[in-house]
Amino acid sequence: IPKMGATGFGYRVAEGFGLGVTETRPGLVPLTFAEQELAAIRPMAGVALPARVSCAKTSFEEPLLFTHRGLSGPAVLQISSYWREGGEIVADLLPGRDLAAEMAALRPEAGRQAVHNALSRFLPDKVAAWAVARAGLAGPLAAQSNAGLGRLAQAVHRWRIRPVGSEGYRTAEVTLGGVDTAGLDARTMEAKSVPGLYFVGEVVDVTGWLGGYNFQWAWSSGWA
């Protein structure tokens, strides 16, 4: 990671000896968005909540954090390692719940409440306001049709959003990519084609999840 004083020296050495080097990019990093999406995200800056964030077939259920620059928090940092430019992510802001059914069940008790206030029972107030606006709802809960509550649930459970990039190495936890493991002996980390040449830690194309796994990889590969 450049901010820590690292350079591409290890990659150049590997390439100089004919070893493969996988394309590198920032990993475990907050994601950024176009101005249109940011205009909706910024009012929620500083709010965190449990969420399930998915990219293709990979998902993480951990806290999500709204920021002035985009989305962060463990769920987003984790999924950033799987997201590629041009792709989208999907966020479920109320995982494990059936929002449409739960809101419908509230009608007898809270039918006179504004739909936004009723939704605030399940989500932070700023997120509830955003979701109601996104679903195009207004007025009391009792006035909302099942179709309207379905749109609200879609906004909360299936928020599809397309990042334009990441915050880069400035805030990244790790570097994705590096020296291709196919060219290394898994027992010793020695280059198969160059006896006496070893690659360990961050320079190798191995990336772990949050939680100390990348530190452990660096220590374990160095020990090998």
Features:
224 residues; elongated
CATH class of the largest domain: Mainly Beta
Quickly give the structural class: alpha+beta
Q: N-to-C SSE series?
A: HEEHEEEHEHHHHHEEEH
Q: Indicate the radius of gyration in whole angstroms.
A: 22 Å
Q: The CATH topology of the largest domain is what?
A: Elongation Factor Tu (Ef-tu), domain 3
- The portion of residues forming beta strands comes to 15-25%
Query: What does the largest sheet look like?
Result: 7 strands, antiparallel
Cα(first) to Cα(last) distance is 23 Å
Overall tally of domains: 3
Tell me the CATH superfamily of the largest domain: Translation factors
Q: What's the count of strands?
A: 9
Number of helices: 9
Mass-distribution shape: elongated
Query: What proportion of the residues is helical, as a percent range?
Result: 25-40%
Low-confidence stretches: none
Placed side by side, the strands forming the largest sheet appear as: 7-6-3-4-5-2-8
- Mean of pLDDT: 96
Proper CATH architecture of the largest domain: Beta Barrel
Describe the fold and architecture.
By secondary structure, the chain is α+β, with helices and mostly antiparallel strands. It has three domains: 9-26 and 176-207, no CATH class; 31-94 and 160-169, Translation factors (Elongation Factor Tu (Ef-tu), domain 3); 99-154, Helicase, Ruva Protein, domain 3 (Orthogonal Bundle), CATH 1.10.8. Helices cover 32% and strands 20% of the residues. The chain contains nine helices and nine strands. A hairpin with a 2-residue loop joins strand 3 and strand 4. Helix 4 (99-105) packs across helix 8 and helix 7 (125-135) crosses helix 8. It is elongated and about 75 Å long.
